[in-house]
Design a protein that fits this description.
The complex is a heterodimer of chains A (166) and B (230).
Chain A lengths: L1 H20 L11 E8 L10 E8 L7 E8 L1 E5 L6 E12 L2 E21 L3 E13 L4 E6 L3 E2 L8 E5 L2
Parallel strand pairs in A: 1-10
Antiparallel strand pairs in A: 1-4, 2-3, 2-5, 5-6, 6-7, 7-9, 8-10
Chain B lengths: L1 H18 L8 H7 L5 E7 L1 H8 L3 E11 L4 E15 L3 E17 L11 E22 L7 E26 L2 E17 L7 E2 L3 E2 L4 E14 L5
Antiparallel strand pairs in B: 1-2, 1-10, 2-3, 3-4, 4-5, 5-6, 6-7, 7-10, 8-9
Classes of the chains: A mainly beta (166), B mainly beta (230).
Amino acid sequence: MKLRLIGQLLVVIVIVVASSCDNSSLCQSGQNAIESGLYSASGEEGRDTTLNSFYLWGLNHPSDSMLLDSVRASKLYMPTDLNRDSTEFVIREETLVQGTVKGINDTLLFIYKKNLEYISGDCGFTYNLELDTVIHTNNLIDSVQIVYSSVVYSENIENVKIFIEP
Amino acid sequence: MLKYLLSLSLFLYCVGVEAQKKDKELTKEEKKIANRGNPGIAVGIDLAPFITHLFSNERFGFAADVRYTLNRKWQTVAELGYETVEIDDEKMTYSSDGSFMRLGFDYNMFNVDEEGNSDNILLGLRYGFAMQEHDCSRYTIEEGYWGDYQSMLGSSDVNAHWAELVLGLRSEVLKNVYMGWSVRVRTIIDVGADSVLEPYAIPGYGRRDRSTNLGFTYTLEYHIPFKKKK
């Protein structure tokens, strides 16, 4: 009788523990992208801005495919090339001036260090990045500031502030 | 989860069988004799790795145990085994080969109240140690825009230490043949890896990406008594 009672108690414990331990991990993609916010270089410090008709693509991308194509943008997710220690992007804004489209381009070069990290058996590996330097041209961009240099799996933190010329 | 359901169904079957046994009231003297215990040494195999392989076919292993029954209450246990892991999917090609040892004791909480009953309700502790060699001949990090990144990590050694709490049942199903179940809560003490490569699974412990694991064993043992039963 005693064995039966304790056996039933054990079954309950097993069910509770088994259900609490079965936490299958969800894998995240696009975790090696640098998160950037667009800010106005004029007026109040840190005021974010939105650019209309905005374009973003990777320089020397094998198929020249666009990351953003004529969209309103205030935040940018810039995926890095894991086969290299730097990635270059072009940003472009088009405006309509007296009936004609005028485009301004800038180039951004991100230089980083890569650190391999094992996530889990289900999700495999990832590269966490440590941003070292950002080099850019100054047509549309006023300045660039690295505010959080680590690009880490499962973190969602702005890495770079891009200040746009007024 | 399925492996736990299978374990539970088999476990419930055993509980049901036990319930069918007729109880017979023993005198105080008979109880004393029945609770003397059956000191001896038992050797057995753990069938749980074969069940695990059905639901997690990348892992395959074997485990055996030696149980030394000191008296009615106390048993010391040594469990030995090995496990291989082979994974080849879009994330990585990985292989591991290792052995483990778990040492500890079980305390029998069951007071016998019927003649010839050799059942045990066991509460125990184990210290686990595993050594393994593993390698990742390919890993792929998906990158949708620039293209995937592929590389490899060579062979490296890992030593792991863990502790486990054991709760189980053990019953004599035939003369000197015992069947036992245990549920184990395992927690990692230390994993010493000399590479960024972490083991997918630690032999005798289970999946590495969980710092606390639930495990189970299903053992069949042959008991060699030190004294003949009266």
